Amino acid sequence: MTFKAFIFGLLASFGFPWLVAVVIPFSKMRALEPVKYEEGDAATGVFIPKRDGRVTEGSKVYGQEGCYQCHTQLIRPTYAGNDVFRGEWAGLRKTLDNPDTRRETLAMDYQDEKVAHIGQSRVGPDLSNLGRRLEQSLKGTGVSPEDWVLQHLYNPRGVKNYRIGTQDLPERSTCPSKAGLFKIVDSYGAGGGLLPVEIEDGKGVQASDRARQLASYLTSLKKDTLGQPLPESLNTNPQAPVEE
Amino acid sequence: MAETTSNAESNDVALRASIDRSLRHPVMFFFTSGAVWLALAIVLGLVASAKKHSPEFLSCFSWLDAGKVDGAHMSALIYGWGAQAAFGIIIWLMARLSRKECTNAGTILTVGHLWNLFVFIGLICILSGNGSGIAYMEFPGFIWPLLIVCYLAITIWSLVQFQVRDAGHVYVSQWYLLAGLLWFPWIAVTAFLFVFVFDGHPVMATAIASWFKGSLFLLFFLPTALASAYYLAPKVTGRPVYSYNLALFGFWALAFLGPWAGMQKLVGAPIPQFLPYMGAAAMVLILIPAISVGLNILKTVHGHGDIVAESPSLRFTSSGIVLFVAYGVLSFVLHTVPAMKMTQFSYSGYGLDILGFYGVFSLCAFGAIYFIVPRITRREWLSRRFISWHYFLSLYGVASIVICAVVGGVTQGQGIEDVAQPFATMAERASQYGWGVTIAWAFLLFANLFFCLHLLLMWARLGRRSSHPTLLKGHHTENPHGPEGEIDNIGSASA
Amino acid sequence: MDHTRDNPLKRFTAFWVALLLVTAFGIACIILRPMTHAKVDSAMEAAADDRRAVRAEVDNAQRKNLNQSALDEAFKAKAVSLLKSEPKPGKVAVPKPAAEPEPASE
Question: A11 and C24: CB-CB below 8 Å?
C-alpha cells in the first residue's frame, strides 16, 4: 500500500459519505418546497406555519439551558415508535370539543429555530405540543400557560393545576428547578411582574428576560396545527390501532 | 558483524532517547492537563447524573443547572481529557515510529496552553448559559475555529514527520495515526461550517452535529486508541502483530463505516429516511472492525498472560481492546431496528458513549501513558498500588455505568413504548438506574484521583530513579519491556 | 542511517501537502458552495407569488377593459365643450384691487 493509494483510499471512503450523508441532504433540506392548500382544505394559498412567542430567542435559551438533555421534541412515525399514541404528546385526542389533532413531526415544525431540538433522552415528557396541552389543561383555572410555565421553571414541584390523568404533575415531577433564571426582588415597587410564589416577607420572585423568552417559546409549542388550518396533505395522523 | 549490530543498537537507543527528550515537555503537558480535566469531567458527570434522579441536588448553584452541566461534562471529557491525551499519544508515537525528533516542541507546547484556554472559555460559556445550545457541539460558535486552528498547529508536524521518515516499513499504528490525524479536521471543519456558518434547515443542523459526534469518536479517538494498542501489544510482548491482513481489513472496515455513523439519533425525524438508518447500520456493522482488531491484538498477546498481568501498559490496553469488542457487540444489539425504538431516547446511548470513550479510548490511553511517561521523564512510576487501584476502580466503574445505563435505558425505552403505562411510572423506574450511574461515577472519580496524583508526581520529576520498571506483580529478573524498558541505560537522567 | 528523505525542502513541501490534506474538505465545502448557498423558495416567497399573481390578473383585466379610443373621444368632447364655455372679454366685470402690495424682493 503506497502513501498515495492510502490517501486516495481515505479521501474516497470519507468523501462519499461526506457527500451523500452531509452535503446533498443539507442542500435538499434547505430547499424544501412550500406546501400549498389543495381542494377541500380549510384555507387556500400557501401554508405558512405561525408560532406565537419569541420563538427564535426562546429556542436558543432552551438549547443553552440544556432542556434537550431530558426532553425531546419529536413525534416519531409509527415505524419508529409509539409516540403518537402516548398521552397527548402528539396533539389533542378526539373529544366533543375538538377533533383529533395528533400527528407526526414534520420538517416545518422547527421553522425559525437555528437548530431542531430533537433531544437526547426522555427523562421528561416530549414537549412538541406542550403549549397545546397546557392550554387544554389550564382551561377555566384562570392561570395563563405562560404563568404556569414560569412557576414550573422556578419550582417544578410547587405548581398546581396541571393534571395528567388523575394525578397532579407536581407530585411526581423530577424536573430540576431553573431558579437561576429568576431574581428575588423587593416586592415593594416591583410592579405587577412577580410570580405568585410565597417566599420571605417583603420579597418576590421576578422572571428574567431569558425566563420570559423561554416561557414564550415553550407555550408556543403547538405543533399539531402550527397555528393554521393544517393542509390535508400534511396530516400525518396515523389511524390509531386501538382506541383507549 | 556482531560489533556493527551492537553499534546500531546503541545508535538506536540514542535516537529513541533524543526523540523522547525532544517531546518531553509537550507530551507531559498534554497528559497532566488532560488528567486534571478528566477528574473535573468526572465530577461534572457525577453532578449531571445525580440531577437526573435527585433534582434538588446542588440546586443552589444555578451555573450547575441540569442540562448545562451535562453539556459541560461531555465537553470537558472529550476536549479537555480525550483530545489532549490523544495529542500526547499521537505526537509521541508518530515521532517514535517515523524515527524523527520533534523540532516544534515549543510551538506545540504554546498552542497546547491555548487549547486549554479555549476549552476553559468554552466550558465557562456553557455553564453561564452562553453555549451554542446544540447537542454534541455545546461550545459557542467562536470556540470551534480556534480549536481547529490549535489542532492543526499541534498535529501538522506529525504529518510532516511521517513524510520525511526514513524509508522503511510503515507500521499498522501509523495507518491509524495518519488517518486519525486527517479525519479530525475533515469532520470538525465540515461540522463547524454546516452547523454554525451555513444557513440550512434546523433538522439538518441537528443531524450534522450528531454525525460530528458519532464520527469523531469512531474516526479520531478510536484510531488513536488502536494505534496505541497496535504499538504496545507487539512492543511489550516482543512479538509481531498476529496478522497483517487482518489488521488491514480491520482498518479499512473502520474507514468505510465510520463516516456514516452518528445520525442514528434522528430515526423518525423529518430528514431523508436513509440517513438515520445508514447511521444505525454503520453502528451495527462496527462489530466487524471490533472483532478483527480484537482478534488481532488479543492473538498477539495470547500466551503472554503473565506479561499482561504485570505490565500496566499492556493490562490497560488489553482491557481496552476487550471492551472494544464489547462495544461492538453492544452497538450491534442497541442499533438493530426493533431495539432502536427503545434505545433512541433513553440512557442506553449514553451508556454506549461512555463504554466507547472511557472503556475503549481512555483505557488504551492510560495504557499508553503508563508506557510513555517513564520514557520521557526518565523516572519510573512510584506506586504499584496506585496503578492497581486505578485499574480495578476504572474497570469496575465503567462496567457499572454501562450496565446501569444500558439496562436502565432499555427499561425506560420499553416503558415509553408501552402506551398503557403512565409516563411517570416509567420515569421513576428509570431513575433507580440513575442512582447506579451516579455511584459508578464516584468509583471512577476515585480511580482518577489516584491516576491524576500519580501523574502529577511524575510531572514534578518525583518518579523513582531505577532501571526496573514498575510492574504490577513481584520483581522479575527479566524485563518485559525489553531492553528499551531500562530507561537509565543512556546518558544521565538530568537531560 | 539513511537521511536522504529528510531535508528542509522536503519538510517544506511536506508541510504544504499536509496543510492541503487536512483542509481538503474545507476546500471542498467552498467548491460546493453553489449547492449549499443556492437561492431557495421560502413559504413567504411562495405566498408573495400568489399575491403577485392576483395583482397581475387585476392589472391585465384593467388593461383589457380600458377603452383608450373612447376615453380620447370623451376627453376631446369635454375639451370642446370647455373651449366653448370660455368667457369672452368684457362680459364679466372684474373688480380691480385697490392697491396691491409690492411683491417681496426675490
Answer: yes
Query: What is the pLDDT confidence band of residue A34, given thresholds at 50, 70 and 90?
Result: confident
Q: Measured between alpha carbons, how far is B293 from B495 in angstroms, rounded to an integer?
A: 38
What's the pTM? 0.89
Residues on chain B touching A173 (C-beta within 8 angstroms): 55
CB pairs under 8 A between B and C: 63
**What HEC string does B58-84 produce?**
CCCCHHHCCCHHHHHHHHHHHHHHHHH
Which residue of C25, C33, C41 to mutate against B (max B Cβ within 10 Å)? C25
Q: What is the pLDDT of residue A240?
A: 47
Q: In this complex, do B166 and C2 lie within 8 Å of one another by their Cβ atoms?
A: yes
Q: Is residue B6 part of a domain?
A: no
With cut-offs at 50, 70 and 90, classify the pLDDT of residue B490. very low
Could you say which of C10, C15, C24 has the minimum Cβ distance to residue B156?
C15
Q: How many domains does chain B have?
A: 1
- Rounded to whole angstroms, the Cα distance separating A152 from A158 reads 7
pLDDT value for B188: 95
* CB-CB neighbours of A140 under 10 Å: 7
Assign residue A75 a region (left: φ > 0; alpha: ψ between -120 and 50; beta: otherwise): beta
pLDDT single digits (tens) B114-144: 999 999 999 999 999 999 999 999 999 999 9
Task: Tell me the C-alpha distance between C60 and B455, whole Å.
Answer: 83
Nearest CA to CA, how far is C43 from chain B (Å)? 13
CATH number assigned to the domain comprising residue B419: 1.20.210.10
- Contact call for A46 and C43, based on CB within 8 A: yes
Domains and CATH numbers, chain A: 55-234 (1.10.760.10)
Nearest-5° Cα angle at A179, A176 to A181 = 120
Q: What is the mean pLDDT of chain B?
A: 89
Has residue B130 been placed in a domain? yes
Which residues in A have their CB inside 8 Å of a CB on C?
7, 11, 14-15, 18, 23-24, 26-27, 30-31, 33-36, 45-49, 108
Max mean pLDDT among B373-387, B457-471, B478-492 falls in B373-387
B165 lies in some domain: yes
pLDDT in tens, B397-412: 999 999 999 999 988 8
Range of the domain at B328: 14-489
Q: What is the pLDDT of residue B491?
A: 36
Mutate to test the interface with A, among B419, B431, B435 (most CBs of A within 10 A): B419
Q: Would residue B2 count as lying in a domain?
A: no
